[in-house]
Amino acid sequence: MAGAQRVFSGIQPSGVPHLGNYIGAIRNWVQLQKTCGNNVMYSIVDLHALTVHQAPLLLKRNIKNMTVCLLACGIDPKQSIVFQQSQVPEHCELMWLLSCQTPNGWLNKMTQWKSKGATDNKSFVNIGLYAYPILMAADILLYKATHIPVGADQLQHLELTCDIAHTFNSRYGVEFFPKPQPLLSEGKNQRIMSLRNPLQKMSKSDNQEMARIDITDTPDQVHNKIRKAVTDCTSAVTFEPEERPGVSNLVSMYSALSGKTTDEVVEDFTGKETVELKDGLTQVIISYLKPIQEKIIELEEDEGHIEQILTDGARRARERASVTIRGAKELLGIN
């Protein structure tokens, strides 16, 4: 990336991230700190989490746990701004200003909304779920972010953000908001699938704990989950995502954590069976997660330190956010 880049990304406080979160997003966030200087912001987007019912005490604990895990994975508050979304009220203020620029037809087209409307009990689908893409746009535009690490399933939301920014700029005759560009954070072998259904992404919302590896899982838990991971009736190790998604998912995980290509992993296991791949992958995961887990234990012992990081992060975020809000309100004639 050339020039002055401003990176923003957010993660919901689902508690402890799973291996898919780490490989597909968090590890890339750590690398971005090294290339973008002090222009990197990572938010724990707790307001987005409220689109479904949250037990208050559990949500509070999950916010802390997610912060601890991000830090343990390598997010450095000296290099990045790490903050809790709800502690920066300008997010909601800008969301309202942008809502008044956004046709509801745009929201009706959002794929995730249409899928939710089709599967959920419509009497319980709330306005927050419908409008949260505007909050996502506000999250990004509030800091005039230019580059957004996203997975392929979030590209539609980023396109909406660009449409909203363009509408605002055109209506008021200024280039106030930049057009944010995607940084696809799920490249080759970074899209980690469910251990129980390898046609679906590994997800925290999956009710089957056996479907994912949490980064705090013990060696015994890792061993048990990988041993029972769905593969197929062929014992050979190959990388064929379309034909053999289960085995290919295990090869992808091995590749992502070992630094080897998928071809190299397959070559290493030529003449061996899937059970041996599972045993090898188990050891790779356990070894990889060990220093992260040790750091988590260390950070959990100093709760005040975690709170201070979030407080400092919110202060730094508000310094930037307040400038954008003042400018937007001035253009709107309400400042």
UniProtKB/TrEMBL annotation:
Annotated keywords: Aminoacyl-tRNA synthetase, ATP-binding, Ligase, Nucleotide-binding, Protein biosynthesis
Any Gene Ontology CC annotation: mitochondrial matrix
Major localization listed first in the record, in broad terms: mitochondrion
Pfam families: tRNA-synt_1b
TM spans (from-to): none
PROSITE patterns: AA_TRNA_LIGASE_I
Gene Ontology biological process terms, A to Z: mitochondrial tryptophanyl-tRNA aminoacylation
Subcellular location: Mitochondrion matrix
GO molecular function: ATP binding; tryptophan-tRNA ligase activity
EC class: ligase
Reaction equation(s) it catalyzes: tRNA(Trp) + L-tryptophan + ATP = L-tryptophyl-tRNA(Trp) + AMP + diphosphate + H(+)
SUPFAM superfamilies (UniProt xref): Nucleotidylyl transferase (SSF52374)
EC number: 6.1.1.2
Origin superkingdom: Eukaryota
PANTHER family xrefs: TRYPTOPHAN--TRNA LIGASE, MITOCHONDRIAL (PTHR43766)
Family indicated by similarity: Belongs to the class-I aminoacyl-tRNA synthetase family.
Function: Catalyzes the attachment of tryptophan to tRNA(Trp) in a two-step reaction: tryptophan is first activated by ATP to form Trp-AMP and then transferred to the acceptor end of tRNA(Trp).
Stated name of the protein: Tryptophan--tRNA ligase, mitochondrial
The organism of origin for this protein: Amphimedon queenslandica (Sponge)
The gene coding this protein: 100632243
